[in-house]
Design a protein that fits this description.
The complex is a heterodimer of chains A (206) and B (480). Chain A has five helices and twelve strands. Chain A has 206 residues and is α/β, with parallel strands linked by helices. Chain A has a four-stranded parallel sheet, sandwiched between helices. In chain A, strand 5 and strand 6 form a beta hairpin. A six-stranded parallel sheet of chain B has the order 1-10-7-4-2-3, with helices on both faces. Chain B has a four-stranded mixed sheet with strand order 8-5-6-9. In chain B, strand 5 and strand 6 form a beta hairpin. Chain B is of the alpha/beta class. Chain B is globular and about 55 Å long. In chain B, 49% of the residues lie in helices and 10% in strands. Classes of the chains: A alpha/beta (206), B alpha/beta (480). At the A-B interface, helix 1, helix 4, helix 5, strand 9 and strand 10 of A face helix 2, helix 3, helix 4, strand 1 and helix 5 of B. Strand 9 of chain A pairs antiparallel with strand 9 of chain B. The structure holds iron/sulfur cluster (SF4). The site of iron/sulfur cluster has 14 residues of chain B, from helix 14. Iron/sulfur cluster binds next to helix 14 of chain B.
Chain lengths: 206, 480
Amino acid sequence: MNEGAATSAREEILSRIRTALGDRPSPAPVARDYRVAGSVPADVEQFVDRLVDYRATVHRCGSDEPALRLKEILDARGVPRLVVPDGFPPAWLPAASLVTEPVSTETLDEVGAVLTTCALAVAETGTIVLDAGPGQGPRALTLVPDYHLCVVRADQVRAIVPDAVAELDPRAPLTWISGPSATSDIELRRVEGVHGPRTLDVLIVG
Amino acid sequence: MTFLGIPTASSTGHLRAPRTFPEAAHDALGNAQLRRNLGDATATIRAKRAGVVAELPDWEQLRAAGAAIKDETLAHLDEYLIQLEEQVTERGGVVHWARDADEANRTVVELVRAAGADEVVKVKSMATQEIALNEALADAGITALETDLAELIVQLGHDAPSHILVPAIHRNRSEIREIFLREMAGVDPALTDDPRALAEAARTYLRRKFLSAQVAISGANFAVAEAGTLCVFESEGNGRMCLTLPRTLITVMGIEKLVPTWRDLEVFLQTLPRSSTGERMNPYTSMWTGATEGQQFHLVLLDNGRTATLADPHGRSALRCIRCSACLNVCPVYERTGGHAYGSVYPGPIGAVLSPQLTGVEHNPTLPFASSLCGACFDACPVAIDIPSMLIHLRAQVVDAKREAHHTPTPEAAIMAAAAWTMNRPRWWARGLRAARLSRFVRRRRALPPPLSAWTASRDLPDPPRETLRDWWQREGGVQ
Ligand code: SF4
């Protein structure tokens, strides 16, 4: 890159902005009189409802049953082998053929199924947020396989979007997932599954 | 010649109509298929949007907050851009600045070459369409592959997008099937026109490309100044594929797409999906800061006429726009003409404002007249941009520009001057709108005001809103 040219574009744009703002606009402060973090109680039933509305399949179980329930879900889907990222709770691991990290993109494509935890969830929008924390893996892990099974603890469900924003670290790679991949590009008919996982199963624990 | 620091309109890119709006609209109105597709599509999105907006008890507060956050951003844009640059750089990203489309395109071409690639995958992005990046890449021998399904349909159909959000809204399923059969290498010849089968064909076609691409190019919906975080909202997962898999990611972003703080996103994460696709939340939103998970990251900050828009105190609120397309879907003019008639990558009500602002009104003199000023766009806008008032403001600028250019008034300038004279006198305008509203009881055929009446004379228009915004404002005790 031509460093001289780059510097001058920067200086010129900043200088144009300062000229443009010559009238010193002083807008009114932002009123946060909408529902902010902590103002609404979280509702797990609403989370389930919204997930179903966006065509995810929801399963539930008690805190001591995840391993068993996960095995049942995988058997019902006919998933013989799946990728499990580092940091997935050992007590929850189902009796299945597991592929552990590191995994190449090609392996992800070939295995075609992944099991993860999440950072938190938002009830009002039926959203799961991944932040690459323990049990979630890098972003490609939940993207390339056609099947994603995500475990959400009931105490990870937040009420509304501001609750989630308040807790998340913006510098972590974040993926907000609301239902399976979808398109409405053809005559606005919703079709599930274009490039991301076409099937999203969610197990809510507790 | 430009002088340092003078806000400059854009001279390049896909912002200028080759023909006037009335000419292009006239052709579009003759295309019955287009009008049917558009009518169905906009009606569907309008209904979905209304449903999910009604679910939020604090919609109006979120809308006001969204407007205020954007105004704060614009009022200190230089400081926030510097902050963003610092944060992105600190996290291993490289920031580039581009005064106009040519400079942005040159930068991207050099970056792709430096990465040793001759093919790139792209996420749908208004900014890269605005600067005609695909054409610039092609000139440099680089193939750009659009990966959003609608953009792919448009690209394979050798066509232009007609809607911000649903670029192939003018195509129906059988047309799409024909395009795929004709243009998609290796497609199953037995492909049906079932949307599911068409989506599957696109998935198979693009998957190989995703897994092998070395460079991806994206736009950004937002960037957070205090943290350096960038966001892309999408539905299909093609965005995630591009943002995640290739070794090099190049993001081209207009300088106005900033928010000051991380917390500010809590507003737009609620208002953008509801306003654009009519969903509570779009299927995927990706956020990343700097070089992430071993990727190289380049951010290109684009002016291209934005500082010129910022310089106009009566016009700068157009830069609040978050490109949701809600204003398109409620616009009676857009619904009839479609996006192509606007001749710019930004169609509909916001396009009628933003395109002439970015290029200077002299290059898009008919667009500010491409509206009936019914006010539906303002009501739908999640950042409360008063589009009707800005159109009137721009109409006056067009008239002034014409007057300067021709010393003696041309017939066209005289008509525009008359229109602008009415529009600039609130009482006359209010009376005119009220007359239009009352007229729905007596007239079955409705027409747009001149000069739009020339091409809508024989078309039905929907009922004007029962109460104009201005009536409401006066009834609520507002002052003029
Ligand atoms: S002007 Fe408002 S409604 Fe129109 S696209 Fe921009 S943000 Fe959306």
